[in-house]
Amino acid sequence: MTGTVDIIEISAVVAAVGVLAGVVYYILDMRHNMKIREMETCRLTMSDFISEQAIKRHATMMNMEWKDLNDFIEKYGHPNPEGLSIWTSWFFAWEMMGILLKNKIVRAEEMYDLGGYTAILAWEKFKDVIQGFRSFRGSRWTPPDLLSNAEFFTQEMLKVKTQREASFKDKPKTTLNTSTRK
Q1: Is 63 helix (H, G, I), strand (E, B) or coil?
Q2: Is 182 helix (H, G, I), strand (E, B) or coil?
Q3: Rounded to an integer, what is the distance from CA 30 to the centroid of its chain?
Q4: What is the DSSP letter of 154?
Q5: I need a labelling partner for 128 at 20 to 30 A (CA). Which of 8, 70, 159, 173 fits?
Q6: Cα angle vertex 97, ends 153, 32, to 5°?
């Protein structure tokens, strides 16, 4: 009788070890697949933004000049599809990156390393324009949270920059927190 009990106990222990090994394998495989998904998402996200054309678009965007919101709309709004496409393509890309960050599909440090830091200066340059668009009441085409995910992305990039660059912490604080969101 004791021999049968020993065999049952041994088989129960072996089964438990097998289940434990399966769980460990499953967790490791899941983590590996998540890393692959994250890397592929980063690659796809950034593929358009490392081209010569994209770099020219960014340089053009950062060299845009305007006096006020009306001047901006005239020069770079719907009346000028070429100007509109240059700056909106970048801000919609940062909007998408903000959504990816919020959903924890990518990490802020990775996006920063892939050039996400460029959003900081661009936000500073365009924040008044974006706030102006957000404040248009009665416009069914401009939501009050326009580019809020791009703003979130920029704030996350600023956090990474501040953590990495001690000298940046001493500079005047940016005015990123201009959102109308509550």
Answers
A1: coil
A2: coil
A3: 23
A4: H
A5: 159
A6: 115
